[in-house]
Amino acid sequence: MTQPVRVLIADDHPIFRDGLASLLETQPDIVVVATAGDGAEAVGLATEFRPDVVVMDLQMPVLNGIDATRRIVEELPDARVLVFTMGEEDGTVLAAMRAGARGYLVKGASQDEVTRAISTVHAGGLVFGASLALRIAELLSGSVAPDRSAFPELTEREVEILDLIAAGKNNAQIAQALFLAPKTVRNNVSNILAKLHATDRAEVIIRARDAGLGGG
Q: Which H or E element spans position 203?
């Protein structure tokens, strides 16, 4: 007999979280092992219960869904993370995929869509909307992944931000895409300018694009 898929649900809205858990519990091939109200709790419960699939809201307190996804994937490589988003925001979804998510669903998806997506990622597949299929395929192929080798003096986070700067994003857009505070982005941009001995943002963009960043 096939073992049911063990699912952890992480969402800071109790009505949505409990409602989704109730819906999934009606499926004979799915068992909800735990629910979490924030990203930090999700990481802890994932480590404790070792679910097959984590259904993760992106916007949560304490620890956002992208950072929680990154930690869970690092600690539990076999776990599959499926993120929920309010809409197909380009940077947000790509940031989640970069963090290790195997797909996403827009909130409002039907019960059939949710259960099908859980089954797909559990089986090793990917789930994402057609509007982002090409970009995510490029991302996963590595063709637009930020190349750290060109800027060894920068941290991984700084390269990630540099990639978005090179793509023409302003600080507010970068903060939204990476779920960072605007002040954090400003500090990182200042560090990038200092480390690269660049006089202004335009010079950084030119150097980053010459190195292949910003093409995503």
A: helix 201-210
